[in-house]
Amino acid sequence: MTTSTTHSAASAALRSKLALYLDLIRWNRPAGWLVLVWPTLAALWVAAEGFPGWHLLLVFVSGTVLMRSAGCTINDIADRDFDKHVKRTTQRPITSGQISVKEAALVGLVLTLVAFALVLTTRWEAVAWSVPAVMFTILYPFTKRFFAMPQAFLGIAFNFGIVIAFAAVTGDVGVTAWVLWLANMFLVLAYDTEYAMVDRDDDLKIGMKTSAITLGRFDVLGIMAFFVLCLGLTILAVLPYGLGWPFWLGMALATAQVVWHFTLIKARTREGCFVAFSKSHYIGMTIFAGIALGFALR
Fold it and tell me: pTM, whole model, 2 decimals?
């Protein structure tokens, strides 16, 4: 074998391994981190009462993507035996044996450390809140074994970005932060229940617990209630800032999307529920756009 052939083979192997790592962290499925980044950015804008500066913007966008990616590795490690029995997840890198548990854990650790390093460039209060955020991210996958609605636990883990954003901007986590935190908790419950509806049949067979199973025939009603609570609490938190028509336009567009979600999930088909979940980040995007434009024009 020539040197050039050896080099080509090594390059191909490296590209193949990199592709597996990117698949592990769901790089080709940005909806998973977009549902996190929009509420975090909304919290940043509210905390700063406008543009928070390029430093914090970079820290929180990058940190959100990194922690979501780390969360995917942790989730796949925890669920590697269960994923063999779910149609949608049988070919995930760990489950299929293409990446070892040790490799995946190392990837998750590196991503978490980089995210933590970014937070270290902000206030110490933000650093302090990031510690429980990492702990909840690690614990979430295991709650599906015993907790009737693990999506609530997921909401706690996902929502730390809001708390950390307020801590980074103001050094304090006040009432507004917690109302936004609760609003996004209901948003997470809504879209992740849609996601759980996709795998409900498989989850029932393997004994996995999800909000879709717990809610049963009230799943669609529950999701709609979660969306309404999210929108109502967001209005409650942001109304005192007087953001005018841009905010109300954003909320109107978000409400229209909730109606669209109902049309997608009412028949409870796998395809409809997955489309609803995959497009749910647009709700957060329109809310954030309304807030950002409202502050810009205030």
Answer: 0.86
